[in-house]
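Minutes, structural biology subgroup

Action item carried over from last meeting: produce the structure token record for 5'-nucleotidase SurE (Halogranum amylolyticum). EB confirmed the sequence was re-checked against the source entry. Recorded below for completeness.
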Amino acid sequence: MGRTRILLTNDDGIESVGFRALYDVLDEVADVTAVAPADDKSAVGRAMSHEAAVEEHELGYAIHGTPADCTVAGLEALCPDTDLVVAGCNKGANLGAYVLGRSGTVSAAVEAAFFDVPAMAVSLYVPGGTGEWHEKATDPGDYREATDAAVFLAEHAVDAGVFEQADYLNVNAPMPGDDPAEMAITAPSTLYDMTAEHENATVRLVDRIWDRMRDDDLPDPEGTDRRAIVDGKVSVSPLTAPHTTEHHESLDALAETYRT
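Output recorded by EB:
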């Protein structure tokens, strides 16, 4: 069997440090083609363009569009023989159920699921605190825990049957510490702590989760993605992409009264 063919994308842009760190390690074990946004497209969710310019890049292709654009363009036109889509490595964690739909990184993996192509989203948790957040994780070595986990999963997850039950994996890793991080299989936390403050003509929206993670002020139990990260572990959440539906007798009864 030949080397795994990987489509690598992200939402931070093809020139980001985390993207190159992940490309370099995956390229040692697989045939990797980059199909990634030319510029930063963070937090655009599954937004999609009708048309996007494509430029050849030393790693593959730079797309003037969204992460979802990149997945569709890659799987349909640029590298259709892909075995695995990997999105990342994102600078900043994608943790919690409420984040999944916002993240461009996760959305690129979700888009692959509709092509029946296994996928994973890979992100690095960059804790707040002293110093500006954007000044951290500027060296490829800062992504080591994330890239180690990504390589391991890229080499073993398909053959292990992981994608017979999951459509994609949401992988979040801590920054390197004194000891190598363990891997924990998790579910997205359901804790939601967004606040809004209205002052004059402005509404300020604040996500308090990140401060609470820094202060270890989370009620999240063991087995959730945020708890694993706070405990210094690599979080791997096996997820499915299509929305699920359930039979609701109360909704059936309500529909029967429509226009009566």
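Discussion: Helices lie at 17-26, 67-78, 104-113, 144-156, 209-214, 225-230, 249-256.
Next step: EB to file the record with the rest of the batch.
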